[in-house]
Amino acid sequence: MKYYSIHEFSKLISRTPQTLRNWDLSGKLKPHHTGANGYRYYSHQQLNELLGIADIQRKVIGYCRVSSNKQKDDLNCGISFVMLFIANTFVHMATDNLKANLLKINLIQDQTIHIIQIISTFLFGIIVGY
Predict the structure, then answer these.
(1) Which tens digits make up the pLDDT trace of 40-82?
(2) Nearest-angstrom CA–CA distance, 121 and 63
(3) DSSP assignment letter at 71
(4) Looking at the annotation, which residues are catalytic?
(5) Is the model's pTM score more than 0.85?
(6) Where along the chain do its domains lie?
(7) What is the H or E stretch that residue 70 is in?
(8) Which helix (H) or strand (E) segment is 87 a member of?
(9) Residue 34: what are its φ and ψ, rounded to 5°?
(10) CA end-to-end span of the chain, whole Å?
(11) 3-state SS string over 20-60?
(12) Tell me, what DSSP letter sits at residue 11?
């Protein structure tokens, strides 16, 4: 897996390294890992999540079979395991989608705050100029 330094990652998502440090402190976006030198590193998967790029999904096919009617209980047990696997996979996919959407919301929120600050500064300059 590819990892990006804080500077590389900040350029890819059009944010400053300080914004990423603030997100780390606030819990909005934690780095994938921190090196022994204290540097933050972000994964390619985190980049995809922020940019809304889905990873290629793999398909899993469950197959349950028994060789005789006497093993019907074993078949039911196998079916239960496959259903549990499917439910678990669905929960993980839903959780991953929720995390990606929360990151997008945080990005939009930060952009909105930045725009409001720019407009406020502009309006304050007009008011003071009178």
Answers:
(1) 999 988 988 887 765 556 676 777 888 888 888 888 888 888 8
(2) 64
(3) G
(4) 67
(5) no
(6) 1-56, 61-130
(7) none
(8) helix 72-129
(9) -115, 130
(10) 57
(11) HHHHHHHCCCCCCEECCCCCEEEEHHHHHHHHCCCCCCCCC
(12) H
